[in-house]
C-alpha cells in the first residue's frame, strides 16, 4: 500500500490572505423638521456604497416642502438604496409606502433593517412601510399587493439617482406606466446628480423617451450643493455638485 502523503495546510489560505469584508456603516439624514433619520449602509456593495447620495437627501427635503405629495398618499420608491425618501414619506403620513431596490438579498435585507430601525418614528395607525426587491420592468404585482382597498397604482413615485443607468431607461418607463395612477395629480419625481458629467446628454435622453411614452416632463429645480460627493472623481465640478429635479405626470391625452 502506498504511503499517504501529508499535505499539511498547503490548501488553506494563509491568515490575512483575503482583506476583511467591509463592515456596514451608518449615516444620518437631518429632516427640515429637525428630526433625524438614521440608516445602515451596506459596506462596499456596488449598488449602495457607503454614502448617502445627494439626490436621496434632496428628494427627502423636497417631500417635506411638498407634503401634499405624500400625506395620505400611496408612495412607491424605485431604486431606494438605504431608503431615506421612503422612510421620510412614511414619517410624513403616507398611507402606504413601498421601498424597492434590485432584488439582491443583501440590499433587500438592509432595506428591511432600515425600515425596522425607523419604525418608532412612524405612526403605524396612519402609515405602513413595506420593503420589496424589484427589477425594473418586471411584473408589479408584488408591489401593488401592499396597496389598500384593492388599489393597483400609486399616487407618487420617487426615483432618485436611477436615470444614470441608461440601458434601463425603457424598463424604468415601463415600471412608471404600470405603477403611476392615471390621475392629473399623480406624479413621478425624478431627481439626480450627474456624477459623470460627460454622460449627462445620455442621461437626459430619459426625458424625451418618457414624453414619447405618455408623460409630460417639467423641470422643478436645479440645486447646487456645497460639496461634491466623490472628491476624486473627474469631470466638471459644478455639475457634480448639482442636483436636478423633474416632475413627470401623465399627458392629458393619456387620462381620457
Automatic annotation (TrEMBL):
The keyword Signal does not apply. It is found in: Cytoplasm. Its EC number is 2.1.1.-. One of its GO terms (cellular component) is cytoplasm. SUPFAM superfamilies: S-adenosyl-L-methionine-dependent methyltransferases. Keywords: Cytoplasm, Methyltransferase, S-adenosyl-L-methionine, Transferase. It comes from the Eukaryota. The keyword Isomerase does not apply. S-adenosyl-L-methionine binds at residues 53, 79-81, 101, 136, 160. GO terms for biological process: methylation. InterPro entries: EFM7, Methyltransf_16, SAM-dependent_MTases_sf. It is an enzyme of class 2 (transferase). One of its GO terms (molecular function) is protein-lysine N-methyltransferase activity. Its main location: cytoplasm. Signal peptide: none annotated. Belongs to the class I-like SAM-binding methyltransferase superfamily. EFM7 family. HAMAP family: Methyltr_EFM7. S-adenosyl-L-methionine-dependent protein methyltransferase that trimethylates the N-terminal glycine 'Gly-2' of elongation factor 1-alpha, before also catalyzing the mono- and dimethylation of 'Lys-3'. This is Protein N-terminal and lysine N-methyltransferase EFM7. The gene is NNT1.
Amino acid at each position: 500500500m502506498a504511503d499517504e502523503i501529508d499535505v499539511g495546510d498547503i490548501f488553506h489560505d494563509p491568515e490575512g490572505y483575503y482583506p476583511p469584508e467591509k463592515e456596514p456603516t451608518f449615516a444620518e439624514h437631518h429632516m427640515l423638521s429637525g428630526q433625524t433619520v438614521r440608516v445602515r449602509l451596506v459596506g462596499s456593495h456596488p449598488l449602495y456604497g457607503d454614502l448617502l447620495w445627494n439626490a436621496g437627501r434632496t428628494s427627502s427635503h423636497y417631500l417635506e416642502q411638498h407634503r401634499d405629495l405624500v400625506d395620505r398618499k400611496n408612495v412607491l420608491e424605485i431604486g431606494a438604496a438605504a431608503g431615506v425618501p421612503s422612510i421620510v414619506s412614511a414619517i410624513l403620513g403616507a398611507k402606504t409606502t413601498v421601498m424597492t431596490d434590485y432584488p439582491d438579498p443583501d440590499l433587500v435585507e438592509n432595506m428591511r433593517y432600515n425600515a425596522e430601525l425607523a419604525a418608532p418614528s412612524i405612526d403605524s395607525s396612519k402609515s405602513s412601510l413595506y420593503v420589496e426587491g424589484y427589477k425594473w420592468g418586471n411584473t408589479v404585482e408584488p408591489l401593488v399587493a401592499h396597496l389598500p382597498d384593492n388599489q393597483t397604482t400609486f399616487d407618487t413615485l420617487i426615483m432618485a439617482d436611477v436615470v444614470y443607468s441608461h440601458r434601463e431607461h425603457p424598463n424604468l418607463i415601463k415600471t412608471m406606466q404600470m405603477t403611476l395612477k392615471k390621475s392629473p395629480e399623480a406624479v413621478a419625481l425624478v431627481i439626480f446628480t450627474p456624477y459623470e458629467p460627460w454622460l449627462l446628454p445620455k442621461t437626459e435622453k430619459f426625458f424625451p423617451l418618457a414624453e414619447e411614452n405618455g408623460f409630460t416632463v417639467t423641470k422643478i429645480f436645479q440645486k447646487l450643493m456645497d460639496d461634491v460627493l466623490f472628491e476624486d472623481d473627474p469631470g466638471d465640478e459644478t455639475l457634480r455638485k448639482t442636483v436636478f429635479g423633474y416632475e413627470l405626470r401623465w399627458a392629458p391625452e393619456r387620462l381620457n
